[in-house]
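note to self: the first set is below, dont mix up w the second
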Amino acid sequence: MKITFWSDFNCPNSYIGLYRLKKAVDELNLEFEWEMKPFELYPTLFDTPTGSIMTQNVLKYGLAPDAAEERIIETEKIALKDGLEINYKDIRLTSSRNAHRLVKFIRNNYPKMLLQLVFKIYEANFKQNRIIADINVLADICVSLGLDENEIRHMLESDSYDFEVEIDEEDAIVMGVEAIPLYILEISHEQLIIPGAFEKESFKVAIEDLISGDMESKLL
């Protein structure tokens, strides 16, 4: 059984959706293989903060400042209802490319630690408001998980996995992925695509239906 998900570390809905999905899987007492695919929301950002999230919302989505602020506050409230305390308004937006490269490395070398790493990066960005493009921050996260700092720094200081990230993002374009998060659940050769951060209970029902084979009858 496998779950593949397209997300970005600058996307609060990706954080919320993954948190809900992981809780659904845990409550069903299931074991899945997890794979994160990159989908950079702000691919032109640099490794140092260049602006506030409010400014980005105004520029990217054409929102008025009041509407952008309301959107940010509402996102924080939604997260809190799920038990996630995030400080979205003070997020220090930077490139997420290094974080995605690191996820690729961990997936290939320490796959059982993938979700731990992903959640740690989300927490660093949305709760602690650290600069996730910073190699030092990413190395600290890995050390906290018991990984070798020298190995991680060696990888991050090179261009390793940059090409793999680009290939995944090109694949997303070919597949028609236009928004994140997006999840692909594979169970017993059956596949279900879930676009968006569904509620935990909805994720549970979808997984149970996929396992039982009831999903096909509900889609007819």
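second set (the one i keep forgetting abt)
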Amino acid sequence: MGTELLCCICQNVLWKPVACSTCENAFCAGCIRTWTNKQNSFGQATCPFNCKFQEKRAPPILNNLLSKLQIYCAYAPNGCQEVVSYDALEKHEETCQYERTPCQICETPVSHRDQNNRHDPRQCFREMYDRNPDRIQAQFMKLLDIVEASQQRIQVLENLLGVETQKRQ
């Protein structure tokens, strides 16, 4: 596969490509929108090739080439062995049975797609305690790491938004 099918921002196969009307380079729609949103806070948006960015439709030949690709499902690390066409990939991944990823605490496979079947951390700890009460402390340490990482992400997002956090007394 040639580099013309890769996004210069994420270095992956172009996904729903759009082009810059100034330099004619193509990017994943999501990548270039994220890129330009960051640029917009500083004035006129430029593309990664340092020219004025104005979005236009990607050349039809590019979409033609992409439609000929056969791509592994994103859930291949979870066991999916499907290789599907570029055009069928999104629909397949929306319904892929291997979408489940291990819970960070108990490692039970959890679907992030199924809103009706939520994984309850309290139940998770109860089941772990029933299986092996001695192992629960290690799991609590994992949980504290997850909470700390989440707090750090929240702080970064608040800083990006310019929100000052008020300390509770």
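remember for set 2: The domain at 3-67 is CATH 3.30.40.10 (Herpes Virus-1).
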